[in-house]
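Q: Got a minute? One more chain.
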Amino acid sequence: MTKDEYITIPQLAKLIGLSRIAVYNKVKKGEIKAIRIGRNFAIQKRYLENIQGNELKEEDKIIIESAVKKTVKDYGEVLRLLGKE
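A: Always. Here it is, folded:
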């Protein structure tokens, strides 16, 4: 483990545009994977793509595809009319 492989909560907060508290809460809830070093947390840089939303998990893709299909089924005509405007 090297120092360059990790970032701190304040660094991540600045990168993703959230407050430190919001990032800390996400870490505590398990939404952001981090390790504890003493009183601080460190986030592996390899998780940044996922955290920033640049990488989707397969289950996320399935959920999104399902939502799109439902939306098109329920509101297809409205979407077509809006597309003509």
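A: Helices lie at 9-16, 20-29, 48-51, 58-84.
Q: Perfect, thanks.
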